[in-house]
Design goal:
Elements (H helix, E strand, L loop, with lengths): L1 H6 L25 H21 L7 H7 L4 H4 L1 H24 L1 H20 L4 H29 L2 H32 L4 H4 L1 H15 L12 H20 L6 H24 L12 H30 L5 H8 L1 H19 L2 H20 L7 H29 L5 H30 L6 H39 L1
Length: 488
């Protein structure tokens, strides 16, 4: 990885790619290769830390319930509070990044996240732990808001795919390694160590960032307070609405809350149209950018469905233990870790839109193969299907992110990253909600394991439909980019 980043250094002096991939021709910051490499390592280290924390605590929920004398249902909020805090605070974080600057935001966010992790480790009660997890989520949003814009400023468009591929690799690694790492830690240590491991990572990341990240002057634009608050409220209400689908008796409440979030979205758009410094500039949502956003949404929707449905399927239809279920799923993230950086580099040299279409086609095929496995498939067939699904997603993700970020002017790097992160969160949550609704409406929780397995298998076809929609939109994006390139 170091050699790849270092050799990208001189490219900051090159002219932008002429292949028609990117509309923005603004040069990246010129840094010595070693300094650029260390700066990216600092950001990737922070991304690894926050993504591990999104999943590492899940395996400890039973132990937390016992040690903190709480009910299992209440303990789930240790996970929910973190995710809800991240998603609802992203608009505010994006607005603050514009005012404070990305280096300052990053070097504030990492120490605060580290301190919040220490507070989690020292929590004496469940209520304090949940509050500390909210603090973790709020500070994690500061890092999500600036990570991709930092890459966008460190690398010219022709090198952007490579670093976005590395970022996709780190995100997949963090999410996938979290439960396994948590299990290893709990095998010999107490649950506070799940959070204490962040302390050295946070310190190292902060020191490296202070030394290497360039400082760029930021305009003293007014904060879009209305957009930040309403945007966060819209996101939070959507996630809370989806959360209601876990209980069949509250499906109606979830529908009401999601309808309220739609009203808030309409109000948010109205505020942004009138704001002099909007969190999400409306003029950014045109052409290729919109198509990349829609493609990403449906692909992550399919992923959200699969991530929740597959454990149910493995443990009910296949009678796998939780550990066996995790091992059956492992090829998906492992393939992403291996292939995503390669796909990112290819996107810098070849048609990123064509790569995205190929990846989505493979991804859709992988999801279809999972849905068609049947009642008693051999282990190799399950592993192959999950690996193929991960392969397709790995080929697709970095090129599509490159198209999205390349379609936005450099001055809109922050809002573009906000759109990417918020869209991913909403899509994955909608996918999880689709599984919850399928289980609730089928009455699977009140019937046999066979009914639960049937519902989980059926909803996988919804994931296939979502991925298929992403393929269609991605083909439209490819044709749009090809037509634009021919006319230029």
């Amino acid at each position: 990885m170091t050699s790849e980043l270092a050799t990208a250094g001189p490219a900051s002096r090159e002219t932008p790619a002429t292949s028609g991939h990117d509309d923005d021709t603004t040069a990246a910051v010129v840094l010595p290769p070693v300094r650029r490499t260390v700066a990216v390592v600092a950001v990737l280290m922070a991304m690894l830390m926050v993504n591990i924390d999104s999943s590492i605590v899940n395996v400890a929920l039973p132990q937390l319930s016992r040690d903190l004398h709480a009910t299992p249902a209440d303990t789930v909020w240790v996970t929910t509070a973190f995710l809800l805090a991240v998603a609802s605070s992203l608009p505010a974080a994006a607005g603050l990044a514009t005012r404070l600057g990305r280096k300052r935001m990053f070097t504030i966010g990492v120490p605060l996240f580290t301190l919040a992790s220490l507070a989690c480790a020292l929590s004496p009660t469940l209520e304090v732990l949940i509050a500390a997890r909210v603090a973790q989520g709020l500070t994690a949003s500061l890092l999500f808001a600036v990570a991709i814009p930092i890459y966008r400023h460190l690398f010219p468009p022709r090198r952007l795919g490579m670093v976005l591929g590395l970022n996709a690799m780190v995100v997949a690694l963090g999410i996938s390694v979290g439960p396994t790492l948590g299990g290893l830690i709990l095998g010999g240590l107490s649950w506070p160590w799940l959070f204490l491991i962040n302390v050295p990572l946070g310190v190292i990341s902060t020191v490296l960032a202070l030394i290497t990240l360039p400082h760029r002057p930021t305009p003293h634009a007014p904060l879009d307070i209305g957009g930040m608050l309403v945007g966060g409220a819209a996101t939070a209400s959507f996630l809370l609405g989806v959360h209601q689908f876990e209980d069949p008796s509250r499906v109606w409440l979830g529908a009401v809350i999601i309808a309220a979030s739609a009203v808030l979205v309409a109000l948010f758009i109205r505020i942004e149209r009138r704001s002099s410094a909007p969190v999400l500039p409306i003029q950014m949502f045109t052409g290729r950018f919109n198509l990349a956003v829609i493609t990403a949404f449906w692909s992550f929707f399919g992923q959200g469905v699969a991530f929740v449905a597959l454990p149910f399927l493995f443990q009910t239809a296949y009678h796998a233990t939780p550990l066996q279920s995790a091992l059956l799923f492992t090829p998906w993230p492992i393939v992403i870790v291996i292939v995503a950086p390669i796909s990112g580099r290819l996107a810098d040299r070849w048609s990123s839109a064509r790569l995205a279409v190929i990846g989505l086609a493979v991804y859709t095929g992988g999801l279809a193969s999972l849905a068609l496995l049947g009642g008693h498939p051999p282990v190799w067939q399950v592993l192959t299907s999950t690996a193929v699904t991960g392969l397709g997603f790995a080929i697709f993700q970095a090129p599509n992110n490159r198209d999205m970020m390349g379609a936005a002017p450099l001055s809109f790097a922050g809002p573009a990253a906000l759109t990417l992160n918020t869209g991913r969160t909403l899509a994955q949550s909608a996918g999880a909600g689709a599984v919850s609704m399928a289980l609730a409406l089928s009455g699977a929780s009140a019937l046999s394991a066979a009914a639960e397995a049937s519902a989980a298998n059926a909803v996988l076809y919804v994931a296939v439909a979502g991925a298929g929609a992403a393929v269609v939109v991605s083909i439209v994006k490819l044709r749009t980019m090809t037509a634009a390139r021919r006319s230029s």
